[in-house]
From TrEMBL, chains A, B:
This is Arginine biosynthesis bifunctional protein ArgJ. Its EC number is 2.3.1.35, 2.3.1.1. The record marks T112, G113 as: Involved in the stabilization of negative charge on the oxyanion by the formation of the oxyanion hole. The record marks A183, T184 as: Cleavage. Heterotetramer of two alpha and two beta chains. The keyword Amino-acid biosynthesis applies. It catalyses: N(2)-acetyl-L-ornithine + L-glutamate = N-acetyl-L-glutamate + L-ornithine; L-glutamate + acetyl-CoA = N-acetyl-L-glutamate + CoA + H(+). It comes from Enterococcus malodoratus ATCC 43197.
Length: 397, 397
């Protein structure tokens, strides 16, 4: 497998573009992905009971697991917008379908931004009318889906599968209201691999648990979360059979793409200066390991300690204790970087200079060994900073 | 019932004092409560699996539900301190027992402060040796249990029960690592009422659910949480019978004391400028109503919005949606103060000037009507501010 430079349109037969329609002051706010032929598709959505209108429209479009185009806007979430919001999301789907000449049942819709505002449909309509399949700017799509993100988030990988080069590309946006459960804010993954709808959905559901669902910025699960995978088969590899070597390779590509996007979202959390990775080993199950890892990385006290570059293991073991998994409180080992802080829950001497250097880095790894089993799991988050307060207290509805 | 000025030693036969032993630089850090006779006692403790040494010692002392004295230190939590920590907590119990001439089995022990440091026993010993039952300073006890708290937290109420005046006093500390589950950081409640151990424990367990367990500052459940109630019977009221009018009156006193202390803890959360009260009505059960209320008041995005004095109902309804209770996302009504923001999940016009004044206050009330049942619940928290980051990032272990 190779990581290459590229965009969401790098896999064969994919097109993408983005533009400034006028929902935001200056930044790009409307984007589309298009596949030359309808692609097999898989999706996971927010588990928040309050779901945005586009979630319902996309779920309906996904009934046959075929998607040919995705239309996305940022700036307005189209959440808590009632019947009119639902009509508007459907209208956005229809407009994109006409403009791109695809069946509207094969158009997925996604939105992100402020909750409770109606989409100004004249702006959406005029924006969509400017999309020209002959003139694409794929990187502009990466920009068009952002809100408070400070950078675009993308990764492209290639791999030979059943004798053919297959490409997979992923793009995501995150930043605030990030504590996904079944999906994350918005992530789109395209591939030209031939693979069945069932294997695609199975893989997405499985990998979401260990990647997108294992990040947290602020503990708040959004109303608009969605991960959508499109596989159009244009690489012309012999179709991927379940449990074959090809399947394993494909899953490895997907794991790398998903985990990379998840980490990028965690690192670019609102106000963040550091990526925090927590690995829990020695747990009774991988589910419990992930639970403990996510509780530690989500603790405000751990997040502020990392911002302050303080090896405050008391706050870490406290979070392990309340995570709700099986734990023997006398048996916990802990490391920050490669410096051991606790052995069987007892403080260890460590090199303060090395620790200082470890904590000054942009990525901090915390490892917890529960010493009661063989299973492990990871979670990713960011530090909690003055800037987070600024971003969220100065933001006015 | 009457609220009066007083201290934890106001009920008949109680004595309390506090002093500077030397665990902290200058502030008071050691305190005791003493009852002239062994009191019937009830307690609830942290559900964190990582429990501090004094929790184990107090649980053992509580085996017969009789307590005559409580010894408390602040500055060091005596948590994650292994066998030596447990020995030290027992030694602290013995020292207090000797000094006050009570059976050590009747001495409860509590600690709060830094995790992972051993108690310097020579300081504890010298501090306890200065306690003189002839010279009490009850208010100094209120001060001696504080850590990052900015103010003491106490309330005293009196009521005539079965023809006798009964007094109940409560004192607490909170500030950080506040997201109690079965108890809160430290709260001590004394009363001279005659009441059985069983009724006392039943009432404490029941009321803890709706008071101390309904506050959150930072989502972190401490290793040292404890609420302890002592009833020494010296008011000489005829004993309180279950379900009698006297029982009702006594429960009302306890409810007021517990809820007042809980709100004081929430309001004095680290860096807080505002108390936030969330009331959820129209829920299917009171448990679900409390769950939703606690999720809303614990949301970092809601907390920063309140700091920014922004009526950001999108963040509130988002938290309602992910709280995990039964909800009809189309039926939610919402108010901040007495201004309605949502009716059946649709935005309502409100008076912006009145809203501005409401949000500028030190206490903000958010009401959510789920409109699917008859039950209700409340939770209390505080805003999330620059000062919270400062307190927790600059604090070094």
């Amino acid at each position: 497998m190779q990581i290459i430079d590229g965009t969401i349109a790098s896999p064969k037969g994919f097109y993408a573009t983005g533009l400034h329609a006028g929902l935001k002051k200056e930044k790009k706010d409307l984007g589309v992905i298009y596949s030359a032929i309808p692609a097999n598709a898989a999706a996971v959505y927010t588990t928040n009971q309050v779901k945005a209108a586009p979630i319902f429209v996309t779920k309906e479009a996904m009934a046959d697991q075929k998607v040919q185009s995705v239309v996305v806007n940022s700036g307005i979430a189209n959440a808590c917008t009632g019947d009119l919001g639902l009509e508007n999301a459907k209208e956005m789907q229809s407009l994109a379908a006409s403009q791109l000449n695809v069946a509207k049942e094969n158009v997925a819709v996604a939105s992100t931004g402020v909750i409770g505002k109606q989409l100004p449909m004249e702006i959406i309509e005029s924006g969509i009318s400017k999309i020209d399949l002959q003139q694409q700017q794929p990187y502009a799509f990466h920009e068009a889906i952002l809100t408070t993100d400070t950078s675009t988030k993308e990764i492209v990988v290639t791999e030979e599968i059943n004798g053919q080069m297959v490409t997979m590309a992923g793009v995501a946006k995150g930043s605030g209201m990030i504590h996904p459960n079944m999906a994350t804010m918005l992530a789109f993954i395209t591939t030209d691999a031939q693979i069945s709808k069932d294997l695609l959905q199975e893989m997405l559901a499985d990998k979401t648990e260990t990647t997108f669902n294992q990040i947290t910025v602020d503990g708040d699960t959004s109303t608009n979360d969605m991960v959508l995978v499109l596989a159009n088969g244009l690489a012309e590899n012999p179709i991927i059979e379940k449990n074959s070597e090809a399947h394993e390779k494909f899953i490895a590509m997907f794991q790398l793409v998903s985990e990379t996007l998840a980490k990028m979202i965690a690192k670019d959390g609102e106000g963040a200066t550091k990526l925090i990775e927590v690995q829990v080993v020695g747990a009774l199950s991988d589910t419990e390991a992930r639970l403990v890892a996510k509780k530690v990385v989500g603790s405000s006290l751990v997040k502020t300690a990392m911002f302050g570059e303080d090896p405050n293991w008391g706050r870490i073991i406290c979070a392990v204790g309340y995570a709700g998994s099986q734990t023997d409180p006398e048996k916990i080992d802990m490391w920050i970087g490669d410096q051991q802080l606790l052995k069987h829950s007892q403080p260890q001497e460590f090199d303060e200079l090395v620790m200082k250097e470890t904590l000054e880095k942009e990525k901090i790894c915390i490892t917890v060994d529960l010493n009661i089993g063989e299973q492990s799991g990871k979670a990713w988050g960011c530090d909690l900073t003055y800037k987070y307060i600024e971003v969220n207290a100065l933001y006015h509805t």
